[in-house]
Backbone:
């Protein structure tokens, strides 16, 4: 058995959990299997109402809609906007032992300091990859 397979069987490798999530125009999220903290951040991040429409139309145009088809504001507003969008999220998680062994305790301490400086309120993926001290 290869080293990677052995480490995976022992739970020493990071795991990726795939989640299919549906975002709705009203701000609701469909996927009850998501961790609560991730669900809350997703609801905070997702735009609703007119901002949802504007973001969708902007991305739709960015994918290559010929500019000559958009001559007036009405042309832009005629682009149909879906009531929901599907996302596939891959959440990475690993045991604190795996991360510390791979990086070393000094590097893990440095990562915690960098995360604390960039995210002082601890709202970005709390405890997902860098375990809390």
Residues:
């Amino acid at each position: 058995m290869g080293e990677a397979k052995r480490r995976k069987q022992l739970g020493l490798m990071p795991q990726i959990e795939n989640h299919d999530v549906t975002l709705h125009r009203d701000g609701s999220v469909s996927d009850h299997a998501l961790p609560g903290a991730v669900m809350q951040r997703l609801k905070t991040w997702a735009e609703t109402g007119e901002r949802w429409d504007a973001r969708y139309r902007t991305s739709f145009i960015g994918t290559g809609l010929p500019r000559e088809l958009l001559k007036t504001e009405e042309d832009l507003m005629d682009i149909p906007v879906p009531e929901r969008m599907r996302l596939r999220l891959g959440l990475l998680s690993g045991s604190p032992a795996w991360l510390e062994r791979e990086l070393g305790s000094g590097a893990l301490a440095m990562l915690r300091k960098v995360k604390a400086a960039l995210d002082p309120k601890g709202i970005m993926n709390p405890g997902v990859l860098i375990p809390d001290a």
Summary: Strands lie at 15-24, 29-30, 84-93. Residues 19-93 form one domain. The radius of gyration is 21 Å. The chain has a mean pLDDT of 80.
